Amino acid sequence: MPRTLATLLLAMTASVPAAAAFHVQDSVQDSVQDSVQDSVQDSPQDATAPRWLRGNTHTHTLWSDGDAPPETVIAWYVDHGYEFLVLSDHNLLQKGDRWFDVAEGGRLTPAKVEAVAERFGEAFPELREQDGRTQMRLRRLDELQAMFDRPDEFALIPGEEVTGSFRLAQIHVNALNVDETIDPIRAESVQATIQANLDAIAAWGRAKGRPVLAHLNHPNFRKSLGYRQLAEMRGERFFEVYNGHRSVENERVGDRPSTEEMWDLALVARLHGGAGDGELLYGLATDDAHDHYETDAVSVPGRGWVMVRCDAVDPDEIVRAMRRGDFHASSGVGLEDVRIEDGRLVVDIDTDEGVAYRTEFIGAVRSEDGEAPVAEVLASTEADPAVYRFTGKELYVRARVTSSRPHPRPYAKGDLEMAWTQPVRPPGTGDDDTPRSDTPPTIDPEPSESDR
Ligand SMILES: [Zn+2]
Ligand SMILES: [Zn+2]
C-alpha cells in the first residue's frame, strides 16, 4: 500500500536513529547487490575476453537541475548494468547540508519521496518541517559512495559539469574524478575560455596527484562552438560526439556540421594542419540525463554511454584507460574487442541474433600534393569482425557501427543503436594510438586552493 507523506513524517524524526541507519545501509546494499548479481548472471563473461566497463559520465540530479534525488539516479544505472557513473551537476559537488522542498508540482514531489522510501527503506528519507514547508535532505557524495560503491562491481566517480560561457557561446566542460568544486573561468575569447577551463581541471589533477579527465560537452548546443574549437584544444582532447539531450543538436542542421562531422574536420585540422597539439581527438557518448522518471523525454538515462577497457572498477584506473583512448562510445552496440593486428584495424562486434551490423571505416587519406584531405568512408562491411587493412597513407581511421535495431530510448525518432571507436593512426606512423602519458600535460594556471 502506498504511504502518504504524512505517514512518512509521523514514522520518522528529522534524524535517523543509529539502528535504523544501520538497517537502511544493509537493505540498500542488499538491493544493490541483488541487481548487480542479476546483471552478472545475465551476461556471463569469458575469462579471457577483455573486460569492458559500462559508464555514463554526464548526469544531473536535484543538486543542480536534474529532477531526481541522487540515490534514485544512481539506482537506475546500477539496475541497468553500469559499472560506473559520474554525477556531473552544474558547478558543484554534492557536499554539505542541502534541504530540498517537497511539494506537489515542485521538482521533488511527495510521490518521489515515497519512491525513495520504497526502494531504500522507510527510514531512509530525512525529512523536516521548515517555515511551514516540508523538506528532504539531499544525500552527499560521501554518503552515496558508501551506499553504492562495491569493489569490482560499481564505482561512483566524483565529477562536475564546469558550466560557463563567453558571450553567447555556452562552454560546458565535464571534470571527471574531481572531488572539489572547480569554478568556471571566463577568459578573453571562446577558445581561451575553453582552454582555461581544461587547464584548471588538469591543474587540479596534478596538484592532487590524481588522474582526471576533462571533456568538452555538446559543441552544437545553442550553436556555441565549431570544429575549430575542437581542433585547437590543447592537453585535453575529449569531447561529446553524442549527447542524449534533445536540445543539443548532435545532427547536421542546415550547413552546420553534425558533431560527428566536426570530429573529422577537427581530426584533419589537428593531424594534418597541426592545430591544437596535433594529437588525436577522442569522442564520448553520454546521457546528460535530467529527466529520470520517463523513457521518452528531453534527456533520459540510457541514451548514450562509454565502454572502457579496464580490469578494475576503480575511478583512477578507469580514467587512465580513457586517457589512453582505450574506450568506445555507444548508443546500444557493444564491441568485444578493438585492436590493431597485422596492419589491420579489427572491430569485434558483440552481436545479437536477428540484428544486422554495418561497420563503416571513416578516415582521411594524405594527398600527394600535401593539400588537407577530406574525411570519407574508406570501407564498409557487414561482417563480424569488421576488418580494415591500413595502406599507411591514412591520417587516421575510426569505425562507426550501426545496427538494424531501433534505439529503445532514442535521441531522435528512428535512431538505430550504434557504436563509435576512437580514431587511430596507421601502425608505424609516429604515435599511432599510444598515449603520451596518463596525466594531463598542459601548462598550468595557478591551482585553486579553495573549494568554493
Ligand atoms: Zn551542458
Ligand atoms: Zn549537462
Task: Report what the structure shows.
By secondary structure, the protein is of the alpha+beta class. The chain has two domains: 1-40 and 102-137, no CATH class; 51-98 and 142-334, Alpha-Beta Barrel (TIM Barrel). The protein has nine helices and 20 strands. The chain has helices at residues 5-11, 18-42, 70-79, 110-120, 141-148, 190-208, 227-231, 259-271, 315-323; strands at 52-56, 84-86, 99-101, 127-130, 133-137, 155-157, 159-166, 169-176, 213-216, 238-243, 282-286, 305-309, 327-330, 334-341, 344-350, 357-365, 376-381, 386-389, 394-406, 416-420. A hairpin with a 2-residue loop joins strand 7 (159-166) and strand 8 (169-176). The longest helix is centred in the N-terminal third of the chain and has 25 residues, at 18-42. The protein is globular. The model is unreliable at 6-45 and 432-452 (pLDDT under 50).
Order of strands in the sheet with most strands: 6-2-1-12-13-20-19-16-17
Beta-strand percentage?
25-35%
Secondary-structure element order, as H and E? HHEHEEHEEHEEEHEHEHEEHEEEEEEEE
Instruction: Tell me the total number of β-strands.
Output: 20
Task: Write out the CATH superfamily name of the largest domain.
Answer: Metal-dependent hydrolases
Bound molecules: zinc ion
Helix content: 10-25%
Question: How many helices?
Answer: 9
Distance between termini? Answer: 44 Å
Largest sheet: 9 strands, mixed
Tally of discrete structural domains? 2
Q: What's the topology here?
A:
Blueprint (H helix, E strand, L loop, with lengths): L4 H7 L6 H25 L9 E5 L13 H10 L4 E3 L12 E3 L8 H11 L6 E4 L2 E5 L3 H8 L6 E3 L1 E8 L2 E8 L13 H19 L4 E4 L10 H5 L6 E6 L15 H13 L10 E5 L18 E5 L5 H9 L3 E4 L3 E8 L2 E7 L6 E9 L10 E6 L4 E4 L4 E13 L9 E5 L32
Parallel strand pairs: 1-2, 2-6, 10-11
Antiparallel strand pairs: 1-12, 3-5, 4-5, 7-8, 8-9, 12-13, 13-20, 14-15, 15-18, 16-17, 16-19, 19-20
The structure holds zinc ion (ZN) (2 copies).
One zinc ion binds next to loops.
